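Progress report, Aim 2. The chain analyzed during this reporting quarter is listed below.
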Amino acid sequence: MNKSYFRIAALYLLLGVIMGIVMAASEDFTLRPVHAHINLLGWVSLALFGVFYTVYPHAAATKVARVQFWGYTVALPLQMVALALFITGHPAVTPLLGISSVVIALAVVCFVINVWRYAAVPRQGRLEGVCQ
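Predicted structure tokens for the chain:
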């Protein structure tokens, strides 16, 4: 799962950079909120999820982690497209924007649950002997 998060995060990084270049070249920053969300929710958050699940692989093996992964990775592109359409004058996408935002929020709740459950559990062999 951590590899999938890193790979998808890298794609969002690329998309965010390309989008920034296109906006700068055209001097049209209408989609600035979409650009910011792609970078934060796409690149940064997905990469941090990948780091967490690398450090705590037992957390990645849970059903909560799978629900988080699929909810987040499916809802995020829908949210970004809906946000872009909304900003450019298509209010009919408001329900899709709202639903995808709620799914992302629920996926974040799943992540928080895993952090609270597993971050305090010491990993075997992590620092034993180093600080003694």
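Residues 17 and 127 are 38 Å apart (CA to CA). Residues 127-132 have pLDDT under 50 and may be disordered. These observations will guide the mutagenesis work planned for the next reporting period.
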